[in-house]
Amino acid sequence: MSRNLNDLFGLDGRVALVTGASRGIGAAIAQGLAMAGAKTYGVGRSAVPDGTLGSVIYRRCDIRDDVAIQSLLDDIHSAEGRLDILVNAAGITLPSKVSENPSEAFRETLANNLTAIYECCRLAAAGMKVGGSIINVTSIGSLLGFPGNPGYVAAKGGLAAMTRALAMDLGSSRIRVNNLVPGYVHTAMTAASYDDPARREARQARTILGRWGVAEDLVGAAIFLASDASSYVTGTDVVVDGGWTTKGL
Ligand SMILES: NC(=O)c1ccc[n+]([C@@H]2O[C@H](COP(=O)([O-])OP(=O)(O)OC[C@H]3O[C@@H](n4cnc5c(N)ncnc54)[C@H](OP(=O)(O)O)[C@@H]3O)[C@@H](O)[C@H]2O)c1
User: Fold this and answer.
1) What's a GO biological-process term for it (predicted)?
2) Is residue 248 included in any domain, yes or no?
């Protein structure tokens, strides 16, 4: 039985790596894990001005480059002697309808949003010990049909399924693997629909709570999945969508 809240949710002494940490949801989660006590590393391809991410140690790295990811993991193990938490928040969207024959967009999205994440999971899990936690940021697109972006929906659906498969394979090592499932969140990725009043209102109306999410809305659930508070939770979805997937009328 935990003696206090910090035993349950605190991440003191843990080491975390967050991909997609240069902005948006990944940046908010990286800062949240650091706030909860984890020594936190973040990666993205963009340069981020010093201090933007608080105490998060940020390194430029493309998750599609598995040699660079392995080198980063080696550096983390040399410096910290461990890795406890991996959050896969890196993702792209290349909207394009199937009628436009966007094979390249489809392949590119799967390579970035699914295959590269498998490699990150595989390489990181090899160095994790009992109690490790992998959090894959999927989407309500992994649960529902959305138009105009078959590659994104396929990649997120595949990622959600991969999470369940990895939870099975890594469970005997007591490494947990879960999906963190955002609804519509106002970030650079969704700026085009947020900036269009009709599309913004349509998406807001789909939620029970009557608003878009902000990146910080994902932080509490990420800390839960990273911490001992979720020590009996694996292979499942934690949905943070303002009620989008529950709402009927
Ligand atoms: N916003 C939403 O409504 C929403 C809803 C559901 C799910 N999601 C998912 O949540 C995650 C974060 O999305 P967001 O809204 O925060 O989007 P965002 O603001 O566009 O951020 C995406 C992040 O992923 C990084 N990234 C993409 N490809 C990368 C690569 N190959 N290597 C390294 N970093 C890479 C980007 O960094 P660089 O550009 O610097 O490389 C950036 O940090 C994504 O997986 C997205 O699919 C978002």
Assistant:
1) fatty acid elongation
2) no
- 149: Cβ below 6 Å to ligand 1? no
**Residues identified as active-site:** 152
The rounded Å distance from CA 90 to ligand 1 centre is: 4
Is the CB of residue 137 below 6 angstroms from any atom belonging to ligand 1? yes
Question: Could you identify the atom of ligand 1 that is nearest to the CA of residue 63?
Answer: 32
Going by alpha carbons, the residue nearest to atom 25 of ligand 1 is: 20
Asked if the structure places residue 249 within a domain, the reply is no
For the stretch 19-78, pLDDT in tens is: 999 999 999 999 999 999 999 999 999 999 989 999 999 999 999 999 999 999 999 999
d(CA 11, CA 18): 14
Ranges in the chain, pLDDT < 50 = none
Task: Please provide residue 226's backbone torsions phi and psi, each rounded to the nearest 5 degrees.
Answer: -80, -25
Number of domains in the chain: 1
Residue 23 belongs to domain spanning: 5-239
DSSP type of residue 105 = H
Domain with 206 in it: what CATH number? 3.40.50.720
pLDDT given at position 1? 61
Q: How far apart are CA 75 and CA 245, in angstroms?
A: 40
247 lies in a domain? no
| Distance spanning both ends of the chain, measured CA to CA | 42
- Report the separation in Å between the CA atom of 205 and the middle of ligand 1, taken as the mean of its atom positions: 24
